[in-house]
Amino acid sequence: MRLAFLGTPDAAVPSLRALVDAGHEVVIVITRPDRRRGRGSQYSASPVKAAALEMGLSVGHRVADLEGLELDRGVVVAYGAMIPGAILEHVPMLNVHFSLLPRWRGAAPVERSILAGDVETGVDIMSLEVTLDTGPIHAERRTLVDAKTADQLMVELAALGAEALIEVLASPELLEHPTPQSGEATYAEKLTKETFHLRPEMSAVLVDRTVRLGRAFTFIDGRRLRVLEGRVADETGVAGALLELDDTIALLTSDGAFILDTVQPEGSTPMTARAWLSGARLDLALARWG
């Protein structure tokens, strides 16, 4: 098929590579414009653009670039913007969406699935509509959430999505006869800075789920500390206090404790919680987190 591909982050790259490997003609790749990344001032390409250029594909940054092209379909994977209805009328599109629709329509389905404590999640191949993630489903893959981090889950779902996408494009039955979504719809709202802020009023389980998103932080005696790895513990005490254990430290929450394993103080590199505690010069009897 002659296809357009629209995507931006790492999670979209497996689908792009799978399309090329399956012999489809990817006429153009549309991705978000280059932007400043990291601490430097240099502009850098999106992961999808980098992969597309590596494969010798044509790249554009505007959906309007699709106008006038002869295309069988478009494929959208985490592009990062809504597709106008006028474009969809010209180019029917499939969307690789990282949830079991209609649960977690929207911008952050993987993270919201983890935060909600879902037992399983998955990826759907759906027909794209003007309305948000409402299209009928062509194929679905499921997986357990378990204790996976958001990064681990996204890598798994990206691979499953690429596999399902190729299956749909190869099957006239799947391609032409999708199934309408059914069930209660929930919406995966965008993540904000406060989503990742660990606070004493949270349950220990919610602290753990937030840490698994990958950007969790808290403040201990006013100093910002990123929490990279940890685990729930049975210890109890006053929420907001710190508890020193044999070889590490725990944050006391509203219903238990969360043991710190790996942390990153502001302006420093990741280290064990014990190493951080050794240099933090805290009075644990008085120190508070939140």
Give an overview of the whole structure:
With 290 residues, this protein is an alpha/beta fold. The protein folds into 2 domains: 2-188, Rossmann fold (3-Layer(aba) Sandwich), CATH 3.40.50; 193-280, Roll (Methionyl-tRNA Fmet Formyltransferase, Chain A, domain 2). It is 25% helix and 28% strand. The strands form 4 sheets. It has a 7-stranded mixed β-sheet with strand order 5-2-1-6-7-9-10. Helix 1 packs parallel to helix 5. The radius of gyration is 22 Å and the shape is elongated. The model has no long low-confidence stretch (mean pLDDT 94).
At a glance:
The chain has 290 residues and is an alpha/beta fold.
Structural class: alpha/beta
CATH superfamily annotation of the largest domain: Formyl transferase, N-terminal domain
Number of domain units: 2
Radius of gyration: 22 Å
Largest sheet: 7 strands, mixed
Note the gap between the termini.
54 Å
Q: pLDDT average, as an integer?
A: 94
Low-confidence stretches: none
Following the backbone from N to C, one meets helices and strands in this order, namely EHEEEHEEHEEHEEHHEHEEEEEEH
CATH fold-level topology of the largest domain:
Rossmann fold
